[in-house]
Design goal:
50% helix, 175 residues
């Protein structure tokens, strides 16, 4: 007879099933923390759960496997700041995230283990004001971070460096 001991926490199988490897976010008080990547983001107006869901939504909307979650967290921080100033905006974001969780069922949006399941929910709401607001802000707030540019091979504007022509743009040795 074999005795099986139940240990607290997630089993390896459950962790893999949830898809949390490298992307586990912990909510502690008003902060969203990534212990494996050593960064944190304090939520000042929005609920920390809302902020964590927005980070997951941002990654699902603009997926880049090599881009760490901290850049997505920086990108969504503006929603928290704006929510502190505008109650209607805060309601739009909080209600939108609540709708995502409702559509995802008992596990909530972040609890869905497969990206395809989350993307299907986002496709269902793609015409909503909530989704368009978050997506529209993300395209600027994510890609305007100078620290993100090297991940995409972008060196920044060229005017201050003499333009593109003198910096290899005219290199046509491959012809």
């Amino acid at each position: 007879m074999t005795t099986v001991y139940q240990q607290p926490g997630l089993s390896r199988r459950e962790l893999l099933k949830r898809g949390a490897i490298g992307a586990a976010l912990i909510i502690a008080g008003r902060a969203v923390i990534s212990p494996d990547r050593a960064w944190g983001l304090e939520a000042t107006s929005l609920k920390p759960d809302t902020v964590a869901t927005l980070i997951r939504m941002a990654r699902d909307t603009y997926p880049h496997d090599r881009l760490p979650d901290r850049f997505y967290a920086i990108a969504i921080k503006g929603h928290d700041t704006k929510s502190a100033e505008d109650e209607a905006y805060k309601a739009l974001i909080e209600d939108g995230v609540a709708d995502l969780d409702k559509r995802a069922g008992s596990v909530g949006y972040r609890g869905l283990g497969w990206e395809e399941e989350r993307v299907a929910i986002l496709r269902d709401i793609q015409d909503s004001k909530f989704f368009q607001t978050v997506r529209g802000d993300l395209v600027v707030s994510l890609y305007n971070q100078k620290e993100v540019w090297p991940f995409f091979g972008y060196e920044g504007e060229a005017f201050s460096k003499g333009g593109y022509i003198e910096r290899g743009f005219d290199d046509i040795e491959w012809l």
